[in-house]
Specification:
Layout: H1 2-24, E1 26-29, H2 35-52, E2 55-61, H3 70-78, E3 85-91, E4 96-102, H4 112-115, H5 122-132, H6 145-148, H7 157-180, H8 190-225
């Protein structure tokens, strides 16, 4: 009986430690519920905080409260924190992603527009601008939305969410570290680039197929007219 009681206490202690870890940098998770994902976020977030004093928190929501925008939700949540904090927030049902930093001086350590860009590379940005005849906004280098936009089978949706959000989280952490002249031992580095490279291959392949079909159709029409 004493053995069972000690085992129960040990289990409660482990669960408490895990809950504290999740609450620290994966501040809220209503979507993934994956221990490995929790550990990865917490490990990188803890190292960033210890070396820079900046707390980078990830919030994974199933859905935003009724009538509340993601910007309003982040502002209300930010009131709970006293240290310099960057919030990366994702809402599944609303299909929304946003970043809020307080104080606002934290924005100088990372490029919010780049992280949230739906375009993954300069070449892709140029192609889209060329197709739309609009070169006014060619911001690229997105590390979240290009992955979120990819189609996934029913059983792979949570994997897509976790990969894209960790990709963005790691991107912000590494940019902050670089700005501070700090090296993160748990940085992702090339893994981010590999996932984005895969997105580029899919995009360029789609563009080339579309161009091929367009040219083929034009030749078909021209031959018929002749």
């Amino acid at each position: 009986m004493n053995f069972l009681i000690r085992g129960l206490y040990a289990l409660i202690f482990i669960i408490t430690l895990q809950s504290n870890a999740v609450a620290q940098y994966l501040y809220k998770d209503e979507v993934i519920f994956n221990p490995f994902f929790n550990h990865s976020i917490d490990t990188l977030g803890l190292e960033l905080y210890e070396k820079t004093g900046i707390s980078l928190k990830l919030v994974m929501l199933k859905e935003l409260p009724h009538g509340v925008s993601i910007a309003q939700y982040e502002k209300n949540l930010m009131k709970d924190f006293s240290e310099p904090t960057i919030l990366l927030t994702f809402s599944e049902m609303d299909s929304k992603v946003d970043i809020l930093a307080y104080p606002s001086s934290l924005y100088k350590y990372f490029n919010k527009e780049q992280v949230l860009s739906p375009i993954s590379s300069p070449v892709q940005a140029f192609v889209i601008a060329l197709l739309n005849f609009d070169f006014s906004d060619m911001q690229s280098g997105g590390t979240i939305l290009p992955l979120l936009a990819q189609k996934a089978k029913k059983g792979e949706i949570l994997g897509k969410y976790s990969a894209s959000m960790f990709n963005g989280y790691a991107d912000i952490a590494e940019q902050v570290a670089d700005s501070k002249g700090i090296i993160l031992e748990n940085a992702v580095g090339n893994a981010n680039q590999n996932s984005i490279f895969a997105v580029k291959i899919v995009f360029y392949g789609t563009v080339l197929i579309a161009i091929y079909m367009y040219i083929r159709r034009r030749i078909y029409y021209m031959r018929n007219k002749t």
